[in-house]
Amino acid sequence: MAASYKTPGVYIEEISKFPPSVAEVETAIPVFIGYTQQALKNGNSIANVPTKISSLLEYENYFGVGFAPQAVKVVVDENNNYAVKTVTIDQDKRFYMYDSVHLFYDNGGADCYIVSVGFYTGSTGSVNAISYANMSAGLSAVEREDEPTIILFPDAAAFGSDTDFYNLQQSALMQCAKLQDRVAVFDLYEKGSTVQPPDAAANFRMGIGINNLSYGMAYTPWIYAGYDRTITYGMFHDTTVDANHGVFLSNTTTKVTNLATLTADSNLNGLVTSLENALSDVSLVTADIDGLRGTSPTIDDLYKLGVNAVLTAGTDALIKSNLKTLVQTVAHIADTIEHKWNSTTYFKGVQLTNDVKSYSTSDKLFQGGVKDFIGIEKNAVTMALLPITEAEIEAGYHFTGTSWLGTTVALAPANTTQYNVPSTAVKDEATMILADITKAYNKISAFISTILNSAKTYASISQDNLYNSHPIIGNIVNAISKALNTIPPSGSLAGIYARVDAARGVWKAPANESINSVTGPVYAISNDEQAGLNVDAVAGKSINAIRAFTGKGTLVWGARTLAGNDNDWRYINVRRFAVMVEESSKNAAGGFVFEPNDANTWAKVQGMLENFLTLQWRAGALQGAKASDAFFVSVGLNKTMSALDILEGRMIVEIGMAIVHPAEFIILRFSQLMAQS
Q1: Where do the domains of the chain lie?
Q2: pTM of the model
Q3: DSSP secondary structure code for residue 622 in this structure
Q4: How high is the pLDDT of residue 624?
Q5: Positions of the chain with pLDDT under 70
Q6: pLDDT, position 239
Q7: 216 φ, ψ to 5°?
Q8: Which of 146, 188, 321, 623 has the fewest other C-beta atoms within 10 Å?
């Protein structure tokens, strides 16, 4: 409506002539649903909350790192020089989320969402099993988010039941069809590669159903990631068995292999013994320290708690009582350490024994700290303040004769510091004494930390020497690493989708692309086997192959949706491009809701969509010599709408597109010619 002018003058009216534009939505923002080490952002829980991240570092800050199993079952063949036959990790205790996100970023991924539906371990430290209820709840949480365009849940491959696996995949397809703005990338239930792809494919086709298949893409086989793994000796020390004495834990005749007697080479066997001794030292030191910290996280936390109790006490009597408790706590720590570690036979590792002696010599760490602390205890002001006698002090220690401290309690002199203050205020005196106690305690604490770190360092060095020098154990370690690197491929595929979309466009099929950070597929699919995967004559459920080619590496060698016999939605790029156009057009058309349903609005909408599709045609997404061959946009009375449609408030726009299809089969035809001259 024209403005009503009442005052004489010059007025300016701006007239909009250009149609609005369509903003292309993002096409490769996956959402990973699974288990994590933690779920914290800025100190707040983000469990079961879809959270956007943009890097692996950000994932680690919020969700932690990957899970390492405590024990791995290894079966070796004694009759074949202890060659590794099988490596078994409890399938329902596997967690693939972290490695899948890692592969996503290694293969070109950018932004993604994470939904942590549970943690690796429970409150008691036991490993959690994958829960269908948790995974389903995570999928439901994703439905409320508009931005994700790809759903994947690599941890589902660890379900104890394939029924749960297929039910979750069917729910994902249902959500994709309902929202029409996302697709799902599926792994097959290969159970850590123990089920071969041909069998897994047959099971998958039976379990996935027939609904909404054009929104799903499946890939096989699993892949070997190329990541370094930390394989501790404890993971296989007590779980390596001889195949000639029964399958692991299947009967009472199972023989746990003694890793220190695998060879006739005493030097190699000695490496095993050295590592076991070093690990024993770590256990001894750790147990001693844990026995001193009580319910506090560390000994230092225990000490700080005692100091705080003194400084915050409200009465003189409570100050004295809390200070006495703190003094007795430090004395107990010093006495226990000396009493436990006074024997040269306590440590099996010679190097660590030498370290203990080195760090306790005159004026160094432990000896200096204990001498200083005993001096503070025997100070006249301290004894009067607590109160405590010199006899009571000495009774608190086991060592009364010369020990590796190089002194005796009786000979440890009292210091002569004047802790008295003019006001003789108890709190002031206690504060002055605390300052000196803290200096002495820091030396004792530093010694304890040094010995613990030394024990761990020697164990690490011994383990590296063993792994690098002992061929049999080296093979066991490599086999375990390979088993831990057996990963479902969905995370890497999501990264490839993002990489191809960024480099070429969503209309380019994400196939004939190499997979980064992998050493190969776990199963070599032949041409004949892929023929059966790619074309399903019965139900059309195509499964894309991952194959290794000489000189090329590991490639994605398939580009079909699960609707492999559907001429409309056979190819992944066609489905994903259509999703992008539909969502982009829907968002742009939202601005016209409740606008007049007349020719002016129709022209604007038609112009907006034609401009958008023209850009897609120029980019190569649509096929045709000219724009009119590549697409059409139609809207209008007696074209797409009847008069009744207009009366009932419906504006109907029809869009047709000639989306490019991949050249899946390139056929070169050769023939011979007769000689012409």
Answers
A1: 30-65+91-230+484-557, 283-468, 594-677
A2: 0.85
A3: B
A4: 94
A5: 1-3, 91-92, 192-194, 245-255, 342-345, 360-363, 399-411, 421-424
A6: 86
A7: -120, 145
A8: 146
Alpha-carbon distances of 271 from 10, 24, 276, 382, rounded to whole Å: 97, 62, 9, 52
Q: Specify the CATH number for 30-65+91-230+484-557; select among 3.10.450.50, 3.40.50.11780, 3.40.50.2000, 3.90.226.10.
A: 3.40.50.11780
**DSSP per-residue letters across 266-279:** HHHHHHHHHHHHHH
d(CA 464, CA 275): 9
Q: Look up tokens 């009465």; give the residue.
A: 315
Closest CA to 100 of 44, 15, 35: 35
Give bridge partners of residue 514 from the DSSP assignment: 555
b/e 113-145 (16+ beta carbons within 10 angstroms → b): bbbbbbbbeeeeeebbebbbebbbebbebbeee
Tokens of 558: 């398939």
- Residue 12: per-residue pLDDT: 85
**Chain-wide mean pLDDT for the chain?**
90
CB 468 within 8 A of CB 291: no
Output the pLDDT for position 40.
Answer: 95
pLDDT value of residue 77: 86
User: Three-state SS for 127?
Assistant: strand
Chain centroid to CA 268: how far? 36
Q: Are 32 and 100 in contact (CB under 8 A)?
A: yes
